[in-house]
Write a structure and sequence with these properties.
Largest sheet: none
CATH superfamily: MetI-like
CATH topology: MetI-like fold
Strand content: under 5%
Number of strands: 0
CATH class: Mainly Alpha
Shape: flat
Order of helices and strands: HHHHHHHHH
Helix content: over 70%
Structural class: mainly alpha
Radius of gyration: 21 Å
């Protein structure tokens, strides 16, 4: 008979909850930087410069074709060897998640731009608008509104993937739950608490995204 003993975990709950701030910090910063980087890559993919299109395509292929955990470990452990710089856990996590997220977001941005009616692009150019101004004021705002659900999915994936930072010692939710589990020799309950926290964060993000999507549709 399985007996769950959550009472032994409750005293350590504040310690595990402190990991929420760490998880949200990795997710929010990486998502913001990844969106900027992914937008630049997406613009390269739909642009007219062949070398930039080639670079963006190869970059995306590399980061989508290799495991995120491998990228994280490689950046954290190989950077000191290659550059002599002792990269911190925070820097390694943000850099890895940003580079990886940017690859996926670039494809989302590219698809969103291509989904905008080509007639709007032709009309803007015929009115004498420059290409950068057209993309900033006409194409990108519509593309972002259309791809909002995909961006939400990417942010949710990034939130869950941020748990990988525990592998290199990041003190996020999963890392703290594991420490509690090892300290109390009780593994199921702390990990269930960690899973519940991740689930709550994902639900909050999903509800906020649904609200934003409704606002954009009525704006």
């Amino acid at each position: 008979m399985i007996i769950l003993d959550f009472e032994r975990v409750w005293p350590s709950l504040p310690y595990i909850l402190e990991g929420v701030q760490v998880t949200l910090a990795y997710t929010s910063v990486s998502l913001l930087l990844g969106f900027v980087w992914g937008t630049l890559l997406g613009l390269c993919k739909v642009g007219h410069i062949a070398s930039l299109r080639w670079f963006a395509a190869v970059y995306t292929s590399l980061f989508r074709g290799t495991p995120l955990l491998l990228q994280l470990i490689l950046i954290y452990f190989a950077t000191p060897q290659l550059t002599g710089y002792n990269i911190s856990i925070w820097q390694a996590g943000i850099l890895t998640f940003t580079l990886n997220s940017g690859a996926y977001i670039s494809e989302i941005i590219r698809a969103g731009i291509n989904a905008v009616d080509k007639g709007q692009k032709e009309a803007a150019l015929s009115l004498g608008m420059s290409y950068p101004l057209m993309m900033k004021d006409i194409i990108l705002p519509q593309a972002i509104r259309n791809i909002l659900p995909s961006l939400v999915n990417e942010s949710i994936d990034l939130l869950k993937e941020s748990a990988l930072i525990s592998v290199i010692g990041g003190s996020d939710i999963l890392r703290r739950a594991t420490i509690v589990a090892n300290d109390k020799y009780l593994y199921f309950e702390p990990l269930i608490v960690a899973g519940a926290l991740y689930y709550v964060l994902v639900m909050i993000l999903t509800i906020a995204a649904q609200f934003l999507e409704k606002k954009l549709k009525t704006s």
